[in-house]
Design goal:
mainly alpha; two-stranded antiparallel sheet; 2 helices; 2 strands; 39% helix
Length: 66
C-alpha cells in the first residue's frame, strides 16, 4: 500500500481520530487551512454562485438562500 493509501486508512480506522473534526490532513500530519478559507464574504459569493449554477431551490437545502 502506498503512503496515500496508508494515510487514508489511518483517517478511517485510527481510534485516536474518532472524534477529530474540523482538521485538515496532509499525509499523516494535520495542517492549517488557508487564510482565504476563513473569508466569509468569499464563502457567501461562492455559495451564491453555486446556487445559481445548480438552480438550487430553497426547499432543497437547509442553508439560507438569499
Amino acid at each position: 500500500m502506498d503512503n496515500a493509501g496508508k494515510a487514508l486508512a489511518r483517517l478511517v480506522l485510527d481510534p485516536q481520530l474518532t472524534n477529530v473534526t474540523e482538521k485538515y490532513f496532509s499525509g499523516f500530519n494535520t495542517i492549517d487551512s488557508s487564510q482565504e478559507s476563513y473569508d466569509l464574504d468569499k464563502a457567501r459569493k461562492l455559495w451564491k454562485a453555486s446556487i445559481e449554477l445548480t438552480q438550487l431551490k430553497s426547499e432543497e437545502t437547509i442553508l439560507k438562500i438569499k
